């Protein structure tokens, strides 16, 4: 069964919003800090990390460790296994959020 049309997972919301911002920025521009993103979106740290991981996997941003995240040049790192692992984590988090939402609906309806 494929579920469509439901609410977007929080990490996807973060990725979508930041993707739009990145389109208006130049390569090398710094993104807001993770703390600023947590405050802006009101989501947990891991959710923000998952959204950023999606953008790293797409090659839109690059991480410079403690220095932060920067707009990338659009190239996707092919040999970075960590990026793939982060993408998988992001997808698992998104699925977990959807399951939680579905369980909440089920409990609320008395099923």
SSE layout and pairing:
Blueprint: H1 10-23, H2 34-41, H3 45-57, E1 61-63, E2 69-71, H4 81-108
Antiparallel strand pairs: 1-2
What would a concise description of this structure say?
This protein has helices at residues 10-23, 34-41, 45-57, 81-108; strands at residues 61-63, 69-71. It is mainly alpha-helical and 111 residues long.
What key attributes describe this structure?
single chain, 111 residues, mainly alpha, 57% helix
Beta content? 5-15%
Order of the strands making up the biggest sheet? 1-2
Q: Which percent range fits the helix content? A: 55-70%
Characterize the main sheet. 2 strands, antiparallel
User: Which outline best applies?
Assistant: elongated
Q: Kindly state the mean pLDDT as a whole number?
A: 85
Q: How many β-strands, per DSSP? A: 2
Which class best fits the helix and strand makeup?
mainly alpha
Q: Helical element count?
A: 4
Instruction: Note the gap between the termini.
Output: 19 Å
Radius of gyration: 15 Å
Regions with pLDDT < 50 over 5+ consecutive residues? none
Order of helices and strands: HHHEEH
């Amino acid at each position: 069964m494929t579920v469509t049309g439901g609410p977007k997972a929080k990490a996807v919301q973060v990725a979508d919003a930041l993707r739009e911002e990145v389109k208006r920025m130049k390569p090398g521009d710094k993104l807001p800090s993770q703390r600023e993103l947590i405050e802006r979106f009101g989501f947990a740290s891991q959710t923000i990390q998952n959204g950023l991981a999606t953008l790293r996997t797409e090659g839109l941003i690059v991480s410079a460790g403690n220095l932060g995240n920067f707009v990338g040049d659009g190239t996707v790192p092919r040999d970075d296994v960590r990026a793939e692992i982060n993408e998988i984590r992001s997808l698992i988090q998104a699925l977990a959020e959807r399951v939680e939402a579905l369980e909440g609906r089920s409990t609320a309806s008395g099923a």
